[in-house]
Design a protein that fits this description.
The complex is a heterodimer of chains A (about 325) and B (about 375).
Chain A lengths: L2 H17 L4 H7 L3 H9 L18 H14 L1 H20 L3 H9 L4 E4 L12 E7 L4 E5 L4 E10 L14 E15 H10 L1 H25 L1 E2 L2 E2 L4 H23 L4 H24 L2 H4 L7 H14 L2 H13 L7
Parallel strand pairs in A: 1-3
Antiparallel strand pairs in A: 1-2, 2-5, 3-4, 4-5, 6-7
Chain B lengths: L6 H17 L2 H10 L4 H9 L8 H14 L1 H8 L5 H7 L2 H12 L5 E4 L15 E5 L2 E12 L6 E7 L13 E7 L5 E5 L11 E12 L3 E2 L5 H40 L6 H29 L5 H26 L7 H9 L9 H14 L5
Parallel strand pairs in B: 1-4
Antiparallel strand pairs in B: 2-3, 3-7, 4-5, 5-8, 6-7
Helix pairs in contact in B: 1-4, 3-5, 4-5, 4-8, 8-9, 8-10, 8-11, 9-10, 10-11, 10-12
Classes of the chains: A alpha+beta (about 325), B alpha+beta (about 375).
Chain lengths: ~325, ~375
């Protein structure tokens, strides 16, 4: 890891301590508050990876990933918000010539959400549809059933149901009524973006894992059972040490490697699985207290599975990785 | 070796399933999960409809499994008002059985079990709540944590220290069980909110501040409390295995339905996903057989703690595995469906009634003592 990345990690950690740490629980209860959007904008995190000609900070891959990693340690919801803007929404808008809207997002005037499916019918006309949405907003990027990626303006109805995780993003099945839709790309564009941002996705998985592991390490130092701290028991100490070792190796890879696409896919695949394992043990070693949201570890357990659903398509992503290794069509049966 | 249930038990299983599907509607399950509110009406309906049947422990076990298969939070809520009853049944005086247990069986009262303490967790013998005998009553001071039914129960079968351990290294000595009513002066409880799962169930912290307990509320003999509670765990762990099995089966049902729907819509399902489904089904079946074996020992009055801990430990890990794997199979779709609730509900199975680690301690200890298996 170079000095620039380390310095950035330290700075972002300080930012998180000041802006996120104390409200991390509230972020999950009520969605990301406005003051976080303001702080992200002021810090230059929105648009951090984009070229300065587009209003971005022109950070390199490792530096951008350091931001995502460090924020995810405190709030995976906020980290995903930064990722979805920087890696998905802004590149799509810029590619389709929507520079003004992109500038408004970077400056904090506009916010855009994503919806997941390919069920939007009738691009270009007013319509209604129901779909799982991430950060539901009046402006959404969605996928049409004709292979198009569309920017839609409209309204949505809130539902009472909370998502399993990433609750700060208000994920849920929403009913949308569109006023205006316009094509801003094709499905292949978003597919390419998704694969090429594997490093960023891995950074979020690893940041979340670090948050959970650190909590478990601290807790097992002070929590006693049968007269000994939990850390004195070999299954606990060995498992947490293994998890920490795996994490450190993947962090080294994340911050040291070049941005090769295939290596990014490899790391993402490992980091996605790892996050589920790490958060599960972290909760388990908190015992009953881990089951309570006030201890802040159950959030990571939920978020790891939610992030896997949102960022790791178990079949598709494994096939893409397999095809990059075999250099041919593979893993399709 | 006959793996089939009797026709009577099969009929009962069907009856419970029909009841759960009819009564545990998704809107009701969601409401209680969101509001963290105990469904008292369902407890009474289950009792009235003969769904809760304590005359046959096989029925109790199957009933728990079938109800948790439809919804774990509501299923546990409907069956948990009797939590701890076996201690009174096996060791309580006729007076205690009549005064307390008969009313629970009639649906007039709810009971709870007070064992775990703040900072105590699995270390039952390390408890600090104490009861000092003064004349014909005990004076109780201390607190209990993570108590199921804590703020809705009318009374609690409570493990307390009535004497210093002798010698001090034998901490399990000097413990006794008292029945503590929630209306006794000095008793207070506060519901623990913000649980990850099983949010329809009520969980609370109990505080005892100079609570006066009549001496006739002592269960069994003074100083035998630890043994009574460990004996109870040998029973209750089979029922937690049944809760876990219900969750595993429910998650398997949903993953199966999802993949069948995919195929129906012409979407190819990879062997990778089909293998995951196979593993869920295999583990669920293995957990079921282990649970039946533990139940068979227990219900024939020859409990086997090793097999019981294996059944509870394996079934609870299977519940968490199946719920997580079903989430993986369903992807984004699962995030906002009832499956996500199953995922949240499943984790507590590996924690309550003995964590997975405690079950492994029991198993290895018994094996190394040479009484690991038949």
């Amino acid at each position: 890891m170079n000095d620039q990345v380390q310095m950035l990690l330290d700075n972002v950690k300080q930012f998180c301590e000041q802006n996120i740490k104390d409200i991390a629980l509230n972020i999950e209860r009520t969605r990301i508050p406005d003051k976080i959007f303001t702080a992200l904008r002021e810090q230059g995190f929105i648009g951090a990876n984009l070229p300065s000609s587009s209003g971005g900070a022109d950070l390199d891959r490792a530096s951008y990933d350091a931001i995502l990693f460090q924020i995810a340690e405190y709030s995976p919801s906020v980290a995903y918000y930064v990722y979805m803007n920087n890696s998905i929404i802004l590149p799509l808008l810029l590619k389709s010539g929507k520079k003004e809207l992109a500038a408004d997002i970077i400056s904090g005037k506009e916010r855009v959400g994503l919806s997941a499916g390919n069920i939007l019918e009738g691009v270009g006309i007013k319509t209604t549809f129901q779909e799982t949405a991430i950060f539901p907003s009046r402006l959404m990027i969605s996928a049409g059933n004709d292979g198009s990626i569309v920017l839609l303006k409209g309204t949505f109805e809130e539902s009472g149901r909370k998502s399993l995780g990433l609750r700060g993003l208000g994920i849920g099945i929403k009913s949308f009524s569109t006023e205006k839709t316009e094509e801003i790309g094709r499905k292949e564009d978003i597919e390419k973006i998704f694969v090429e941002s594997s490093w960023e996705q891995a950074a979020i998985f690893l940041g979340l894992s670090q948050g959970a592991i650190e909590k478990a390490v601290e807790y097992t130092k002070v929590r006693k059972t049968f007269n000994f701290p939990l850390k004195d028991y070999s299954p606990v100490a060995f498992r947490l040490s293994e998890l920490k070792s795996d994490l450190e190796m993947m962090k080294f890879y994340l911050f040291s490697e070049d941005g090769d696409r295939e290596k990014g896919m490899m790391l993402k695949t490992r980091a996605a699985d790892f996050s589920r394992k790490a958060t599960k043990y972290a909760l388990q070693y908190h015992g009953g207290y881990g089951y309570l949201e006030d201890f802040g570890v159950e959030k990571f357990y939920r978020d790891s599975v939610a992030l896997n659903a949102v960022m790791f398509r178990t079949d598709v992503d494994r096939r893409i990785l397999a095809e990059s290794i075999y250099k041919s069509k593979t893993g399709y049966i | 070796m006959d793996f089939d249930l009797s026709p009577e038990l099969e009929d009962y299983r069907k009856k419970v399933r029909e009841f759960a599907i009819k009564e545990f509607r998704e809107d009701i399950a969601q409401k209680h999960d969101l509001e963290e509110k105990y469904p008292d009406d369902l407890r009474l309906k289950a009792l009235k409809n003969g769904i809760i049947d304590f005359t046959n422990p096989w029925k109790t076990m199957l009933g728990i499994e079938e109800m948790c298969r439809v919804d774990p939070g509501l299923g546990i809520s409907a069956t948990v008002p009797y939590f701890g009853a076996e201690i009174l049944l096996l060791h309580g005086s006729d007076y205690l059985k009549e005064k307390y247990l008969s009313k629970v069986a009639a649906g007039q009262k709810i009971m709870g079990l007070g064992v775990t303490e703040p900072g105590g967790g699995s270390d039952v013998a390390g408890l600090k709540t104490n009861a000092k005998k003064e004349g014909n009553k005990y004076i109780l001071n201390g607190s209990k944590m993570f108590i199921t039914n804590g703020s809705i129960a009318d009374f609690f079968v409570t493990l307390v220290r009535t004497a210093d351990p002798n010698p001090p290294s034998k901490r399990h000595r000097g413990l006794s069980v008292l029945v503590v009513e929630s209306v006794f002066k000095g008793f207070s409880s506060s519901q623990l909110k913000g649980k990850l799962g099983v949010r329809a169930t009520n969980t609370a912290e109990l505080v005892f501040n100079n609570v006066e307990i009549p001496e006739e509320n002592l269960v069994g003999e003074e100083g035998k409390g630890f043994y009574y509670v460990m004996e109870f765990f040998n029973i209750s762990r089979v029922f937690v295995a049944a809760q876990s099995l219900g969750i595993a089966q429910g998650a398997l049902d949903m993953a199966t339905e999802f993949l069948m729907e995919q195929e129906k819509n012409g979407i190819s399902v990879s062997e990778e996903l089909k293998f995951k489904l196979s593993e869920m089904a295999t583990r669920t079946e293995a957990a079921r057989l282990l649970m039946y074996k533990a139940a068979s020992y227990l219900f024939n009055y020859k409990p086997n703690p090793t097999i019981t801990s294996m059944a509870k430990g394996y079934a609870s890990e299977t519940a968490a595995f199946c719920a997580e794997t079903a989430m993986e199979i369903t992807g984004m779709t699962g995030l906002s469906t009832k499956l996500e609730r199953f995922f949240r509900d499943s984790k507590i199975m590996e924690i309550w009634e003995g964590t997975s680690e405690v079950e492994k301690i029991v198993i290895s200890r018994m094996i190394l003592k040479g009484d690991g298996n038949e």
